[in-house]
Amino acid sequence: MGEAAPLTPAPAVRVQGFGKRYRRQAAVAGVDLEVRRGEIYGLIGPDGAGKSSLMKAVAGVLAFEEGSIEMFGIRIDSEAAAERVKGRLGFMPQGLGLNLYPELSVEENIDFFARLRGVPAAEIAARKAKLLAMTRLDRFTGRPMKHLSGGMKQKLGLVCTLIHEPELIVLDEPTTGVDPVSRRDFWAILAELLREKGITALISTAYMDEAERFHRLSLMHGGRVLASGEPDAIRARTPGSVLELEAEPQVEALDRIQASLAQAESVGPRLRVFVDDAAPEAAVGTVAGLLKGLSLRDLHATTPDLEDAFVALLRRQRLVEERAVAKPRAGDGDPPGDDVAILAKDLTRDFDGFRAVDRASFTVHQGDIFGLVGANGAGKTTLIKMLTGILPPSDGEGRVAGADMHFAAQAIKARIGYTSQAFSLYQDLSVLENLRLYARIYGVARHAAGERIEQVAELTGLTGRERQLAGRLPLGIRQRLALACAMVHRPRILFLDEPTSGVDPIGRRRFWDILVHLARVEQVAILITTHYMSEAEHCDRLALMHAGRIVADDPPAALKQALREEAGELLEVATDRPLAAMALLEQAGFAGVALFGRHIHLFARDAHTATREIQTILAGRGIGLASVTPRPPSLEDVFVYRITALEQGEQRL
Amino acid sequence: MNSRLTLWWSRLAAMTVKELLQLFRDGFLMFAIVFLFTADIYMTRNVRLELNHATVVVHDADHSAASRELIYRFRPPYFQLGGEIQDSREGQALLDQGQALAVLDIPPYFQRDLQSGRPTDVQVLVDTSNTVLGTLAASYSGQIIGRYGFEAALARMGASEASLDTVPMIQDQHRVWYNPNQNDAWFIPISELLTVITVMAIMLPAAAAVREKERGTIEQLLVSPLTPALILLPKVISMTLVILAGTAISLFLVLVPVFGVPIKGSLPLFFAVTTLYTVATSGLGLYIATLSRNLAQAAMLAIFILMPMVFLSGAWTPPEAMPAGLREAMYLSPLYYFIEMGYGILLKGAGLDVLWDSLLGLTLLGVGIFGFGVRRFRRQFG
């Protein structure tokens, strides 16, 4: 199979004017797209963008009203037509392992799907062995599916989808809820499988930073396609420059910029600004002008990423909800008390001989945003349960909001605010009823409650929605309601467990605006967990958890610096045959070789020598090399590098 | 201390109001509650535990005045004639198909034998697959035929019915108490109401608690300063209020006006007992909630608990009809005491002087059940 897919007359999928309604609500409207044979095509968008409806329709499991879908040149307009292409198609629905049978073992699940798909008995064993080896599930064939980790479930789902060797696979958010290491692993396996079998893939994701994995993609929002094409082409649709800078005081700087530029946010200690239609130099001038009189550091232009483009596209198409988030006035809230908000010392928790958290120690100060990242099962939830007073530690000490974890769990609960992973407010109560309920649960005095509720509603941009039922709110606004309920009693510390899962980038930005103001102005300490590595950049400090231990605890910049010192420079290699090149570079011993769409990422001690080495290797096999460019490492690179190193260390033991 | 108590009450009130709001917004549940407390009980209006136009088919091999006379004594409201058949095999078939409840078989020469004083038989085949109806049909037809034979004997002796008064006989004079007309229409709807109260007392708190688990809202409550008691008590309180309201509606809009049930005893006592019973039984609902992950599981478990509870309560089968062993087991069904007291108060006008032992039984059992439910709940959510 060549990498430049042979030109075939009919594309794998052609969607024209597609529309789908649920009752009278249009979920998707006017979607056109074309997936060429052999490519990985992405659908990127937040929850509710219409991705799942489109994917289900393509997979032939959802009837639709408008437009047409063609697969391999066959128009899917009837049950019979859908039946005809089903054998050439594999579909993995959304949700971790939802299409699998929890009680069945890995092998039984695969056998079931093989027989269901009528795979000849003689071939089952060989295919199974191959797929199991590639996904490294071969050690777990006897394990019931329900005891697999999230990443392993997704790999098993992929195996079951591929067992009948389809020509096209449709994967609905295969990486949602999966940690970055497993996610990268999943992409690598997928790339290899697709290369070997020449399969075409249509994949959806809510993670903007996965865009680079696709050859081409469509950005979706609110049931419409905002833009389609190669990642670079989509970025080019929104001309402008992205600037990063540090300014003191940060809040005032952000206020000033936001007064005249719509797309600006704070990212940890830095600010990130998108200046429309401006060359980098002009943009720098504009921003410097706005911030006259403040102390500026490190003002520079950087490459816009897809999320910048997405937000800019939404702005240009006027799909952004008016900016309603008010700023808290300085002096709101209690004056900062003792500076340390959370102190954990050797916190340990055992469950029946299994150590979920192993000697975790860290400190969070008032006004800090402290991020906690790690794979599912790394111990984050248990750690948060201990810190919030739900679970007593087996060993070690901790003080939260001045109260000792061993003796004053109830006092801790009264002094903190918490939002859980899933939206856990009452959907059948209105915004105001939810706020009132939590005000009374937390003992906010009756005479003060009304004013405080108004205040948090204004701060979180809920004013005007007080009478709406929580269940009817869009996801992003719901999460702000959860935040409002968590802070109605003016807690000194907020615990936020994946608060922005599935929320669109604009909703996430707004959410972070509020968090930053809470931390900077009200000096609230915030402990947050997230799977979005781009979001982790916002944190002042980031603790990385693995197997119950905290394996790194530093500001994001320091983590990246440490990565540079340990692993070297991150290089992006652009070639005309990335898959073949990747295999060669791995053989040559480069670290962290990973495929991102048409580009290869790898680490090198010295960029110059490495570039020459790469040129030699690729030239030797006649592979064209377009460029080798150094790139700033992302936090995902840090995460994956650290965890992979630890896992390899464990395997050696 | 005082402010802590105020805070406790304020939290309790806030949570109770929340439970009620949620319940009122749940259209399906509200419909179920209103339906069960009104329409469901109203529908028992035509349910009788007596013969009601039971079909009798006749094989008359005599075709005489005497046989006709006997046949026409099988009259409404208890019986109705389902026509004549040609042979007894046909009667067997009708019984098998359930198209007749009884077959009356009159032999040839019935009139001749009767008039000549020779003994003669008639055969009645009764379908007793429904024991109550079957037994009633057998007993009623026995009475009808016996009476006919008695009268025929008198007639042959030349005596009239009036002269019977001179014959020495035992007169059976029974007085029926509490329900002098033996009106089934009182017994069944009350029984139904008490059963509905039971279903609600188990299901409503279970549903309220499981819903919190299902939607993940319990997590948010556990991180708040609420104690487990402040999470579960509001559910019990609010659901008890709803059940009391439902009971009042059922009593004053259905039982009294439609069925004419007399309320002979003290209403406050009845509602006090209902409250005690509801709170006690809600312990089972809370226990179910700790076992199940979603509403469907909770409903299955509720049925699992409800069936023996109703079976052992005397709601449908009186204790006197229970075999030894099961009869003792009835003391474990809280519904048994509730039914004792419910009938006692509503129909007999009984007060605490009579019902104290049932009240004591319910209280002891209730403390046990509720305590158990609360313990399980606290262990899971504490």
Automatic annotation (TrEMBL), chain A:
Superkingdom in the source lineage: Bacteria
Organism: Zoogloea dura
Keyword presence, Cell membrane: yes
Protein name: ABC transporter ATP-binding protein
Gene3D superfamilies registered for this protein in UniProt: P-loop containing nucleotide triphosphate hydrolases (3.40.50.300)
Keywords: ATP-binding, Cell membrane, Membrane, Nucleotide-binding
InterPro entries per record: AAA+_ATPase, ABC_transporter-like_ATP-bd, ABC_transporter-like_CS, P-loop_NTPase
Organism lineage: Bacteria, Pseudomonadati, Pseudomonadota, Betaproteobacteria, Rhodocyclales
Alphabetized GO MF terms: ATP binding; ATP hydrolysis activity
UniProtKB/TrEMBL annotation, chain B:
UniProt keyword Cytoplasm, yes or no: no
Pfam families cross-referenced by the UniProt entry: ABC2_membrane_3
Signal peptide: none
Keywords, comma-separated and alphabetical: Cell membrane, Membrane, Transmembrane, Transmembrane helix, Transport
Domain ABC transmembrane type-2: 154-380
Membrane disposition: Multi-pass membrane protein
Membrane-spanning ranges: 20-43, 185-210, 230-255, 267-289, 295-317, 354-374
UniProt GO MF annotations: ABC-type transporter activity
Subcellular location: Cell membrane
GO CC terms of this entry: plasma membrane
InterPro entries to which the protein is assigned, alphabetical: ABC-2_transporter_component, ABC2_TM, ABC2_TM_bact-type
Family named by the database record: Belongs to the ABC-2 integral membrane protein family.
Protein name: ABC transporter permease
